Structure formats: C-alpha cells, structure tokens
Amino acid sequence: MDSLSLILDTFAPIAGRRILDIGCGPGILAKALAAEGAAVTGIDPGEAAIRAARSRVPAGRFEQASAEALPFPDAGFDGAVILNALHHVPDPRAALAEAARVVGPDRPIVVVEPLAEGSFFAALKPIEDETEIRAAAQAAIAAAIASGAFACRRDVTFARHETFADLPAFLARVTAVDPARQAAIEADADGIAAAFEAAATRTPAGYGLTQPLRAHILVPAA
C-alpha cells in the first residue's frame, strides 16, 4: 500500500471529483490526482510552494492560505486530502474542523501522517525533532473521532520506503519540504551525517530509509 493508492481507492471513481489538497506543497500529489481526472484545488501557507504547484498543475486551482482558515464556502468539495501536513499546522484540531466544513457531511477526508518512528524519522531527528508535533497531530485526530465530529471509516498503518543516492540527496529532500531546515544542517553537519549513516540501510541502489505512516479516512458527521 502507498498513499496515492489509498487516496485513489477512497475517491474511486476519482475522475471529475472536486478534491481539496490541504498543505499541497509544490503540487506533487495534486499533479497525480489531476492526471486521474480529478478537479484539484490546493492550499498551502508557503508562497513559493503555491508558485511551484501552479506551474506543475496548470489546470488546478491553488491558493496561499492556512489550513485553519480555508478560503472556501461550506460543502464545496467532494473530499479532501491532508498528506503529511497536519503535524505542520499550529492547530491541527482547527484544521480538521475546517476540512469538515468545506467538504460537508458524509464526504471523506484522507489524513496521512508520519509517525515518530522508523529510520527516516531517526535520520531527520537531528535536523528537526518532530516527536511532539507528530504526537499532537495523532491526538487531534483521536479527539475529533472521540467527540463524534467524525466517523473513522478506516485506520491503517503502512510504510513508505525511500532510497537516496547519498546524504546530499536526503538533505535536498528534507529541505524541499521546509527550507528553514538548512540552518540546522549547517549548524551540525557532522552529527547529521552520522545519524544518516546509522539509520540508513545500504543497498546496491543507495541508502534506504523507512517511514511508518498512519492513515485515517474520516467522514464528517451530519
């Protein structure tokens, strides 16, 4: 299983469906969904990310906005995706409530979040320790379900495997997500290199890292 397969399965048939990509970044997921015929709208707080998404997916609609204050009317989408982004939101509970508002009752929201474990997490930790914010995202999801605001249609954990040619390739990957990480990399280059070597598995193709992901398919209550 991978995130894209789970998302496509959730919204099948996806062609023509209005999907909101919350925390769209540079539009990688949006491009994949648009290629399947979805009508994609994306939001991200980063201006550079929105420019990249617009360039990558000309047919999509992209707005610079916060997940806690979506600039869309109620029930305007057939579903939403929050892919590896909820833990970056200062108030994840507010983001879930906003997602519910813009999709409306009985329409799915796919939330995929990295857990604070795995070799990818271990390699990232000296650059940015996301232990607390990842736990906060999971707590927000659990609280939203417990409150009755959402039904959980599916809760599944799976692994994302990535291979990097070398340390610079890994660092390029993690700074593409957040350019502010570059300062931490420069401050402790030797420690970060050691953590990467210790966490990664050497393969003929390069350095392998694994990140466990937990996916929830949430359906807002009526």
From TrEMBL:
Signal sequence extent: none
Record GO terms (molecular function): S-adenosylmethionine-dependent methyltransferase activity
PANTHER family: METHYLTRANSFERASE, UBIQUINONE BIOSYNTHESIS O-METHYLTRANSFERASE, MITOCHONDRIAL
Name the record gives this protein: Putative methyltransferase YcgJ
Domain of life: Bacteria
Keywords: Methyltransferase, S-adenosyl-L-methionine, Transferase
Pfam families (alphabetical): Methyltransf_11
Domain Methyltransferase type residues, every copy: 20-106
UniProt KW Methyltransferase keyword: yes
GO biological process, one term: methylation
SUPFAM superfamilies in UniProt: S-adenosyl-L-methionine-dependent methyltransferases
Enzyme Commission (EC) number: 2.1.1.-
